[in-house]
Amino acid sequence: MIITIDGPAAAGKGTLSQKLASEYGYAYFDTGMVYRAVGLKMLLSNTDLKDIKKAEKEAGELDFATMIELSKNPEFRSSKGGEAASVISSYPGVRERLLDMQKNFSMNPVFADGRPANGVIYDGRDTGTVVCPNAEVKFFITASPEVRAKRRYDEFIAKGMNAKFEDVLRDVKIRDDRDANRKDAPMKPADDAIILDTTNLNIEEVFNEAVKYIESKKK
To answer: Among 38, 66, 111, 173, which one is most buried in terms of CB atoms within 10 A?
Structure first.
């Protein structure tokens, strides 16, 4: 089974995706990692993120092993890393070079150790509309910008990182606007996606709603 979980940053889709992957024994693919990997490579080499040709070259050369290695860098999940990923993911040439990698995973999903899996949980922003439009189950997870900014701010503080809530909220809104207005693949719910607003829900409540729907589809 292929399950896609899309939505804006800090809506809770990553936590939900990993809980569902554990519940069903499916592989987990955070598609944002491919863009973070390319963005981070450019940051580490002091390459201007506006250099589209260089971004396309890095995307074309990216492989799974390199992506995993880059994910160990502290900046990979930082606000700076997320902003870089959002910028380079807006380039059609970059998206084209990374799309095949994401699509092919659904045909041969594997766990991190290489073992084959019977299903996959995709976590991203357009996995239900672009990467796997034929997925059996699609969710779109959202929440108010203020709530998402507070979650992200709390994460930064817990990691000992310097952050101001106002700056995090501004970054969230900027990313939302950029992701929603991409010309080639704007972030939006698939027509057949189940929308879950997590503004006033905890992860267990969201998880239970998702499981209930998945079980109904499996029957």
So the answer is: 38
